[in-house]
Amino acid sequence: MLAKKLRKPLCIALAVTALNAKTSAQGFLKADNQRIVNEKGENILLRGIGLGGWMLQEGYMLHINKEGQQHLIKAKIESIIGAEKTNEFYDAWLANHTSKADIDSLKKWGFNSVRLPMHYNLFTLPIDQEKTPGENTWLAKGFALTDSLLAWCKANQMYLILDLHAAPGGQGNDLNIADRDGSKPSLWESEANQQKMIALWKKLADRYKNEPWIGGYDIINEPNWGFDDLANDKNGTKEQHNVPLKKLMQDITKAIREVDQKHIVIIEGNGWGNNYNGILPTWDNNMVLSFHKYWNYNDVNSVKHILDARSKYNVPVWIGETGENSNVWYTEAIRLMESQNIGWAWWPLKKIGNNNPEEIKSNPDYDKLVNYINGNGAKPDATEAYNGLMKLAKATKAGNTVVHTDVIDAMFRQPFASTAVPFKTHSISGGNAVNAVEYDLGRNGFAYFDKDTADYHVSKGSRGGNRGRSFRNDGVDIFKDSADAKNYYVGSTEAGEWLQYTIDVSKPGNYSVLINIMSATDKGNVTLNIDGKNTSENTKIPASSSWQSVDLGKVNLAKGKHTLRLIINEGGFNLKDLQFDLKK
Predict the structure, then answer these.
(1) CA neighbours closer than 13 Å in the CB half-sphere of residue 139
(2) CA 322 → CA 227, 356, 481, 496, distances in Å?
(3) Which sign does the torsion angle of CA 383, 387, 388, 389 carry?
(4) Of the four, 87, 172, 371, 521, which is 20 to 30 A from 283 by CA?
(5) One-character DSSP codes across 388-428
(6) What are 559's strand-pairing partners?
(7) CA dihedral 25, 26, 27, 32 (to 10 degrees)
(8) Is 328 a residue whose pLDDT tops 80?
């Protein structure tokens, strides 16, 4: 994966497209002109997520930013703890990372499909390890993992889309996404690799040909190769012909159709999935075009090339991969895509990081290993490294991850509802503190207001969003407290921004409201608004090198719920919490 675009909201019937409860009535998905439909002819809007990091690790998901291909990470680990313990870690990783509990959660949250990024080496040997050239040794592990995942999806009436993420030899010059070894022939430089890929897809299609909950075959993820001018266009973004890519996809389609005439075949363009020059029109009557969308604006113009392709070639389209941004971007993107009847698959479900539904928690021993691999620390001993890796494998398991409700809310509620809802219950009875980072859930401008909300660097050339990249994934800048790793604060405050909190007062009375702040200057200035009325205005924030309380005055709070907004007239300070002291 390359760690990588509103019209009026879609009508409710489309926005909440439901899956039929019975497998027999649901049937196979198929392409119907420009729509994906089930066998009853009902429009199916895919709302999916990719299981990135499970069968194929990418370095950035593990906080490894140096030599991030899986085979290099594995080799580095093996050099410290040995082959046996390395295999033990990878077995634990595969066993824990994705389970039925994960798929059950996805269904509960609102997803109706799963995209499985597969590494070919879990299904067959690399060509240089085959005893007889041209033969294919089939490995049980990959098929068994896929069978289990399919069973969990079927139990939840969710579609499973198979995605070959790491093809034999590697399909591009972005090495990490396909675990490519640049010292060996790529997919495009080796006929043997291509034949192995064709054989693998035929094997998969034959195995799953009668499974209606297989949504389709995404036959090659993000090819990125300059066929015409490799030296100057190594990732194929300017490629005009794409002859080898088209031929390989046609050969794979032919092999699939020899054993399976029912399932959708999904194809991707060059240049990380978006360059279809020379590839279209399609060559199969049950085909879908996949595009990938990252870090650009979320207006109709940003998906015009997708809509144009759908219309010109009368073929369904799908955003097979998107994400890696802020909640604001997620809400915008989903509202845009669903308004155009474009299904989507988010990326990824979980990693070390907060901008996905689940976050894998790191640990000190693993951090030592990462620092060493990244060239920023001493080599850990074998015991430390092994313990850190096994703790990390355990941390990937459902129930051990941090579930980011703000991300889920941004994907499923906020695209179609502007109302704010409480992040958590803030019960006020005197002597209470409300953490500043626990402001309401909702869109920018409704639950909070921040001036720098998302990363649009593909469109405007500069990154943005949550500068602290901690705790939550909104535009609000949230930082981890260096003195207490369990605490967080709001920082990088700017004039005009505000935060909203829903509080529930159980003891009515007169309260003093204080804010806990730290400021490098004395220029900060805030206003407190409760239930639409300013109760204090233009309270100055003094300079301080440590946390201190600033009194915003007394307010009379009746029993029940109240909406409080802290309005930042002049920023530049950090905010830790709001305190409510009941006065007698």
Answers:
(1) 14
(2) 26, 11, 31, 31
(3) positive
(4) 172
(5) HHHHHHHHTSTTTSEE-HHHHHHHHTGGG----B-SS-EEE
(6) none
(7) 120
(8) yes
Q: Which helix (H) or strand (E) covers residue 136, if one does?
A: none
Please, which residues have CB within 8 angstroms of residue 403's CB and are 6 or more apart in sequence? 105, 357, 358
- CA–CA dist 557, 511 (Å, integer): 7
pLDDT tens digit sequence for 437-456: 999 999 999 999 999 999 99
22 pLDDT exceeds 60? no
Q: Is the dihedral of CA 350, 356, 360, 366 positive or negative?
A: positive
Kind and range of the H or E element at 574? strand 573-583
Phi-psi region of 89 (alpha: psi -120 to 50; beta: other; left: phi over 0): alpha
CATH of domain 12-54+110-353: 3.20.20.80
Of 235, 294, 296, 246, nearest to 268 (Cα)?
A: 246
Asked which of 9-13, 140-144, 353-357 is least confident by mean pLDDT, the reply is: 9-13
Sheet strands (E) in 429-572: 432-435, 448-449, 478-480, 488-490, 498-505, 509-519, 524-530, 533-541, 544-557, 560-570
- For residue 75, count other CB atoms closer than 10 A to its CB: 12
Separation in Å, CA 380 to CA 75, 77, 368, 372, 492: 15, 11, 6, 7, 36
SS3 570: strand
CA 344, CA 463: separation in Å to the nearest integer?
Answer: 23
Nearest to 325, CA basis, from 446, 494, 464: 464
CA 536 to CA 551: how far, in whole Å? 10
CATH topology classification for 418-583: Jelly Rolls (2.60.120)
DSSP state of 338: H
Query: What is the β-pairing status of strands 426-428 and 498-505?
Result: parallel
Tell me how far apart the alpha carbons of residues 427 and 85 are, in angstroms, rounded to a whole number.
Answer: 49
Per-residue pLDDT, averaged over 73-90, amounts to 98
Confidence (pLDDT) at 482: 83
Range(s) of the chain covered by CATH 2.60.120.260: 418-583
Distance between CA atoms of 306 and 180, rounded to whole angstroms? 29
Give pLDDT, residue 418: 96
DSSP assignment of 172-230 equals BS-GGGGT--TTS--GGG-HHHHHHHHHHHHHHHHHHTT-TTEEEEE--S--B--SS-T
